[in-house]
Amino acid sequence: MSKSLLLTAFRVIAAIEAVTWVGLLAGMVVKYLVIHNEIGVKVFGPLHGAAFMGYVAVAVAAWVVLRWSPLTGILALVASVPPLGTVVFERWATRTGRVDRTAARKTVPAESAAR
Questions:
Q1: Is 110 a domain residue?
Q2: Which long-range CB contacts under 8 A does 68-73 form with residues at least 24 apart?
Q3: Which pTM does this prediction carry?
Q4: What is the DSSP string of 41-107?
Q5: Most CB contacts within 10 A, which of 7, 8, 49, 103?
Q6: Domain tally for the chain?
Q7: Which residues are listed as membrane-spanning (predicted)?
Q8: Is 106 a domain residue?
């Protein structure tokens, strides 16, 4: 798998995992607090389970291919546990150059670009 395709897959699965987490949480609110209907949990439970497993697989692949440090790899995996953690990790990893190293090197501060 090319790095470009892996980075795209990582970003997409991180977003999908976060969306399904929100859906599952909303389903649980409906089930336990609002109308006691299980449909939200029945729909989003399996979707979130698949998205979670997909995220873990892609995160491990990114860890290997992008040669993340053990700490970064573990943070990527731990990010799958709290709601929206995958999106927070992906944004942090992008900002710090861990997800797209070439973009991090090409970034030029606005001050020096204006000179």
A1: no
A2: 68/98, 72/98
A3: 0.80
A4: HHHHHHHHHHHHHHHHHHHHHHHHHTT--HHHHHHHHHTTSSTTHHHHHHHHHHHTTSS-HHHHHH-
A5: 7
A6: 1
A7: 12-34, 46-65, 71-89
A8: no
